[in-house]
Amino acid sequence: MESGSLAAKLSGAHWRLWALLPIVALVGAIALFVSTGSSLLDLVGQNPPPRDELDVRRVEFRPGEIKVKVTNPQREDITIATVTVDDAVVPYTLDGDRTIGRLRSTTIVVPFDWVDGEPLSVGVTSSTGIQTTKEIAAAVETPQASAKGFLGYGVIGLLVGVVPVALGLAWLPSLRRASPQWLAAFMALTAGLLTFLAFEALAEAFDLQAALPSGIGGVGLVLLGVTSTYLFLTLLSRRLGSREGTVGGLALATLVAIGIGLHNLGEGLAIGTSFALGELALGTFFVVGFMVHNVTEGLGIATPIAEGGRVSLRRLAILALIAGAPAIPGAWLGGFVTSDVLGVLFFAGAAGAALEVVVEVGRYVARRAPGGLSSGYVVGGYLAGIAVMYVTGLLV
Amino acid sequence: MAKNFTRKQVLAGSLPIVAAAPLAKLAWPSTARGERSATHLGHDKPLEGHAAMIGAEAPAPGGPHDQDDLLVPPPALPYKAGRVRAYDVVAVDRRIEVAQGVFFDAWTYNGTVPGPVIRATEDDILRVNFTNGGSHPHTIHFHGIHPGDMDGVFEIVQPGDSLVYEFPARPYGMQLYHCHATPLKKHIHKGLYGAFIIDPKEPRPPARELVMVMNGYDTDGDGENNFYTVNGRAFYYAKYPIKVKKGELVRIYLANLTEFDLINSLHLHGEFFRYYPTGSTDHFEYTDTVMLCQGERGIMEIEFHNTGVFMFHAHQSEFAELGWMGFFEVSD
After folding, report:
1. pLDDT greater at residue A167 or residue A367
2. What number is the average pLDDT over the span A344-370?
């Protein structure tokens, strides 16, 4: 009776005030701590002096000139004192103040006769003498956002994204003739290749975040990317799915295409960035390798449709675009903007999406496949999916 | 297909000529003296190469006469039996600007890196009143001939304590001094060293005398030097070229106290000089480049044959481009 009346009271307008109580108390506690903060510090020792940290975001090469964009990732202001190229102090100009506040950026312009195709290091020394060095694998003129470059990156994106996926989709007629066991095996293969893509993307995201300055909080960025796409796709699959809660056929194929599409966005970004930074020899072999690697992605999209009724060519084309086309904007972004933060988010997002689709495919296989998840076809198909991605990945 | 030069290559090839023009113009001493910038010669194009690193353009800290006490030694005194030469030296921790805008938490003798120039005539009694005003134990270890208890190795001076070093200055030549507390590497690279000149009883010929102590600074603590200098400030004598007269005898007391790197060197452009290793004998080498290990030192004697602007720098290109370079401006 007592608790009931309390609950009744709380269900009134008062609960809003009660909800505010912890926040008010927190503000009070913080105020108390701040007012006595230094004496508390005396009890446990002293802070080590902060070591200046600077984030070299982008290094661009123009004829006779190097442009270095730097950001201050730390809480304290940082003052740029000297700039070195290959361990030599060089004259430079700044587009703003020498002292930059937290998360503020400035661009350093160095007149410099750099050597095409040779490695080079750019160092920025702060007023406290701490030098941040960025190694450039090979100095090449940074592509400008020209119509030609735009077209070039577009073609690269098309070749490594859309074309192989479309080719893989052409397996659809053959898949329609496959027995239920073999179809289950191919579904499992799809799950396998998506698992591989998720791990690959996750590893890439962790790699990239490790290079970020600690102030940006790389691991949190990865988690944010993974969970947001995972939950977004879960929501989407509920919308697309039937009442029983599982998706199949075209809906599942769409989910697979979205998962692969997000991965290809990251892949395009990585290719564009590496090329723009001179870390990548963009040869025929490289493009061929990616094409072979990505053909299997088309197979993954085709398999869920194979069971259902006829699907129009237009639909298939849309699926190919969803899965493959993101490589094009990815390559543009990577080639012209280059942002490690964006890279971390893209790859983490791709990992989350791929994992979600693995779960969807797994549910589907568990319900529909003869013998369920533990059948030899399914287990074999899953392992084969991972193995195929691994082997074709070696080509890149 | 015949290989033609591209426009870019032609432009690159002409760079030395472009760069030489402002330097050539410098060779003509302008009638207006004073704060004339070596590079403000009315160019619209940005200067390149060394031409962009001289005069006001050079990224050096400080004003034109800040370093005079370190560059110009106290005068030599003729020999007088039994004379005492007394110096007060205090070790102090001090944050100093070592390159433009770059500050280094140094350990110094008397507030500068290198420390003050100590000078005596051979057989003078050198008396150095040393006080440790720093936060770590320090000593002064002099190179030269002296009793064992004046060596600055075992007589550690704690913060707040004092010690008087007293011994006859021997032998004549370019000597040096530095802290010998441990860890030795730390105490030297933090800046505790300086020049110690002992003049011969028979005076050397009168000359324009200069002191150059070569050093380096590891500002980010990775065991490698970020900057190299003479007398403590990167590019200082590029910003403020040393003005000398054609034909006058220029005598440079040179020492190397660079930590971390095996050797340092000095190369003079457009001229040869007599180099007396350690300066304690008449033996000399006629050259334009000398190489010194840490602790090595010597005396250079130059008579410039030509007027103009002549570079001097470490002939380790890296050291030169990290601050160890400067210019002589030779006029009639």
Report:
1. A167
2. 83
Q: Where are the alpha helices (DSSP H) in A73-217?
A: 147-157, 163-169, 172-176, 180-211
Of A89, A91, A129, which is closest to B322 when you measure between CB atoms? A89
Phi, psi at B166, each rounded to 5°: -145, 125
Q: Is B103 on the interface with A (CB under 8 A)?
A: yes
Here the tokens at position A192 are 């396998």
DSSP for residue B170: -
Confidence of residue B180 (pLDDT cuts 50, 70, 90): very high
For chain A, the residues whose C-beta falls within 8 A of a C-beta of chain B are 63, 79-82, 84, 87-89, 91, 98, 111, 113, 125-131
Interface of B with A in 196-235 (CB under 8 A): 217, 219-220, 226-227, 234-235
Mean pLDDT of A50-69: 87
- Average pLDDT on A184-213 reads 85
Which residue in A has a C-alpha nearest to residue B101's C-alpha? A81
Task: Flag if B101 and A111 touch (Cβ within 8 Å).
Answer: no
With 70 as the cut, is the pLDDT of residue B46 above it? no
Residue with tokens 């988010």: A345
Are the beta carbons of A91 and B104 separated by less than 8 Å?
A: no
Closest CA to B76 of B168, B250, B193, B207: B207
Nearest to B208 by CA among B29, B329, B293: B329
What is the CB neighbour count within 10 angstroms for residue B50? 21
Q: pLDDT band for position A3 (50/70/90)?
A: low
Restricting to B residues 136-195, those with a Cβ less than 8 Å away from any Cβ of A are: none
Where are the strands (E) in chain B, listed by range? 84-99, 102-109, 118-121, 125-132, 141-142, 162-168, 173-178, 193-199, 208-217, 227-230, 242-245, 249-256, 263-268, 273-277, 285-287, 289-293, 297-303, 308-313, 325-331
CA B15 – CA B77 distance, rounded (Å): 50
- Is B211 a residue whose pLDDT tops 90? yes
Report the alpha-carbon distance of residue B307 to residue B247 in Å, rounded.
9
| Rounded-to-10 torsion of CA A95, A100, A102, A105 | 20
Res A244: pLDDT: 53
Do residues A135 and A262 touch, judged by C-beta distance below 8 A? no
| Closest Cα in chain A, distance from residue B149 (Å) | 38
The most confident of A16-20, A189-193, A389-393, B67-71, by mean pLDDT: B67-71
H helical segments located in chain A: 2-9, 15-44, 147-157, 163-169, 172-176, 180-211, 218-240, 249-276, 284-307, 313-324, 327-336, 340-368, 376-393
